[in-house]
# Entry
Amino acid sequence: MNTENFNHIPVLLNEVIEGLNIKKNGIYVDGTLGGAGHSLEICKKLSPQGRLIGIDRDVEALACAKEKLKQYDNVKFVNDNHQNIKQILSDLEINGVDGILLDLGVSSYQIDEISRGFSYMNDAPLDMRMDKLQTLTAEEVINTYKEEDLAKIIYEYGEEKFSKKIARRICELRKIEKIDTTAKLAAIVEECVPYIKGQGHPAKRTFQAIRIEVNNEIEPLYGAVTDCIDALNPGGRLCIITFHSLEDRCVKNAYTDALGKCTCPKDLPYCICKKIVKGKIVNKKPILPTDKEQELNSRSRSAKLRIFEKI
# Structure
C-alpha cells in the first residue's frame, strides 16, 4: 500500500483541538486514528512528557499514521477497536487519560480505495470491512441474510423508506446470481429507489446501512461512550464526531445518562436509584462545521461534535 494515497482532511479540526482542552503533559487517546489528521495537531500541543495513544482496527490506517507521526516519540500505536478502550488502557497500565477523541464512521481513504468496496461509485468486490482480518463481509450480508433482516438493517441503519422493496429484490436476484460487487448492489438499489434531485445517489443510504452492519458500528457504541467517560481523569474531555442520526442519538443518550439523571418513579418521596453524576455536557447543542469547511470538505457536511467533561 502506498501511504501517500491516504489523503485525509480532518473534520472539525480546530473545534476538536479546542474541545479537548489539551494539557501539554497529559495523556490523550485518538480512538479512531485514521489518517492521523487530528492526532498530528494533538501531538503538536504535547510536550515530550505528554503521551498519545492512537487506536485503529485498520492496519493500513495504522501504517499511514505511523509514517505521518514518525517525528514523535511519545505516540503508542494500537491495532484494536476503540470499543475495547478499557482493556487497551489496562494493558498499557494507564489508569486514566486527559482526553479522548472518536471520529466515527468510515474514513475518506477507505471510501476512496476502490478495492475496499465501500463506494457505490466504483465497481469492486462487495467487502466494506474496516478490519480486513474479520470474516464478515458485505457480500455475506447481502447473499445470506434473510429478507426481513435485510429490510430491517436498511431501514434502521440507512433510514431508507424503500428498504422492503430493496431487500425483496436482492433476495430475488441472488437466487439467480450471487451479488458480489458494488456495481451489482448499486444497480439493484437504483432499480428500487427513484432518483430525487438534490438527495444524492439512490444507493447512498443502503450502502451506509450495510457498512454499519458489517462493522457493527451502532450496537456497541453506547457502551463504548460510557467506557470512554469512565476512562477519563477528572477534568478530562471526550470529543465525539458523528455523521448520521443513529450515531448522534446514541452519543447524546450516553452523555445524558452520564449526567446522573434520577430514574426513580415520580411517586417516590426521595431518590433511591443512587444516581452517579460523572460529569457535564460542554456543548448543549452539537458543534457543526462552518459553511467554509463544508465547501472545502464535503464529508464534513453531516458532522456533529459533542463534548463531555468528567468531574
Summary: The chain is about 40% helix and 15% strand. The longest strand covers residues 232-242. The CA atoms of residues 40 and 69 lie 7 Å apart.
